[in-house]
Amino acid sequence: MGFLLAALDVPPSSLELFAQYCIEGLTFGALIALIALGYTMVYGIIGLINFAHGDLFMLGSFLALAVASAMATAMGDSTASVFITLFAATICSAAFCASLNVAVDQIVYRPLRNAPKLAPLVSAIGVSFVFMNVGQIYGGVADVNFGASRFISEANLLEQFGVQNVRFTAKNLLVFGVTIPILLGLTFLVKRTKLGKSMRATEQNAIAAQLMGINVNFVIAATFAIGGALAGVASVVYGISINTIGYQMGFQNGLYAFTAAVLGGIGKLPGAVLGGLIIGLVRSLGSAYVGEMWTSALIFAILIVLLVFRPSGLLGSTAGDKV
Amino acid sequence: MEMLWQPWKVSVLAWLLAITLVLLEAFVGCGPAANQPANPGTPKKQVIRIVSSLPRQGSARGQTDTIVNGIKLALEEVDYKVGDFTIDYLDLDDSTAAQAQWTAEQETANADKAKGDPDCMVYIGTYNSGAAKVSMPILNQAGLLMISPANTWPGLTKPGLGDPGEPDVYIPTGKKNFTRVVPADDLQGTLAAQWAKEMGVKSVYIIDDTEVYGKGIASVFADYCPEIDLKVVGRQSIDAKSQEFKSLMTTVKSKNPDLVYFGGTTQTKAGQLVKDMIAVGLDAKFMAPDGCFENAFIESAGAENLNGRAYITFGGLPPEELSGVGKAFVQNYEKNYGAAPEAYAIYGYECGRVAIEAIKKAGKKDREAIVDAAFAIKDFDGALGKWSFDENGDTSTTTISGNTVEDGKFKFVKKLGTK
Question: Of A49, A191, A249, B115, which has the most beta carbons under 10 Å away?
Answer without folding.
Answer: A249
